[in-house]
Amino acid sequence: MRGAIMAKKGTGRIIGIAGFIGIIVLLNVLSYVFDWGWTFY
Amino acid sequence: VSRTGPDLLGVPWRWFDLGIGLSVLSWAVLGMLHAEPVDRWSAPRLTITGLDLLVGGLLLARAAPLRSGSLSHLAAALPAFLVGGTAVTLAPPLGAWPWFAAATFVAGAAAVALSFGFLGRNFAILPARRALVTAGPYRLIRHPAYAGELLMVLACALAAPSWPVAALAMAAVPLVVLRIVVEERVLAGDAAHAGYCARVPWRLVPGLW
After folding, report:
1. Contact assessment for residue B112 and residue B145, using Cβ atoms and an 8 Å cutoff
2. What is the mean pLDDT of each run of 10 residues along chain B (209 residues)?
3. Which ipTM was obtained for this model?
4. At what angle do helices B71-90 and A2-33 cross, to 10 degrees?
5. How far is residue B59's CA from residue B52's CA, in Å, rounded to a whole number?
6. What is this structure's pTM?
7. Maximal C-alpha separation, chain A
8. Rounded to whole angstroms, how far apart are CA atoms B39 and B44?
9. Of B28, B94, B16, nearest to B59 (Cα)?
């Protein structure tokens, strides 16, 4: 049971880190598409 | 103000500010390096670089949110977030703008920079509750940075009027209105914010809304 909870926590953390990297990559790709002309914050 | 703050996607909130802050600072450098020589020292390019340096620095230095918005709040804010970059992409090369378009762009960016300067470490891109700032341009209207950003989008349309960029400039207004409504929903319930709304009734344009 404890192992299952630990595995679930580990999976959640991997998904979180993948989401974090995905958001950073997406923002940089968008900025490239905008020719580094992002003006709206 | 707490320095730990809530997690986002189970990842420490600070990681996002570091990742996005360093990205925005790199855009300032990349924008200058990749610009054509004729565009590199133009007023709009230098303005964008300055704004990137300011926003990147603020993201690295800012305080933790007291309360973050939900995912639906974030989703409602995103379309407005993309308008500025799209408008610049649709506009002519930055070095080829007529003086009045460049001047409008710089004036809008000055309003944005002034507003962000007053926000300081309470600067935020997506809806979240931080310490309330009511000084400087925030004494006139509640969202002076968005007013400045709309002026920058208008400048892109003035640079070379075309249907796509005119349509984008018109679409920017309801998108910003949506962003403001959602943002103020996140802030609702805060007594200090309610008092501020009573003192400064105008959100975007004095006397209008």
Report:
1. yes
2. 57 84 94 92 95 93 73 75 87 93 96 93 75 88 94 93 90 91 83 89 92
3. 0.81
4. 20
5. 10
6. 0.87
7. 51
8. 9
9. B16
Residue B147 tokens read as 């007013």
Which residue's entry shows tokens 């595995």?
A: A7
| A36 vs A30: CA distance, rounded Å | 9
Q: Which of B11, B55, B151 to mutate to test the interface with A (most CBs of A within 10 A)?
A: B11
Q: Pull the structure tokens for residue B176.
A: 């910003």
Q: Helix (H, G, I), strand (E, B), or coil: what is residue B79?
A: helix
Residues B62, B116, B45: CA angle, nearest 5 degrees:
110
For chain A, strand residue ranges (E) read: none
- Nearest Cβ partner of A24 from B20, B51, B145? B20
Contacts of A23 in chain B (CB under 8 A): 16, 19-20
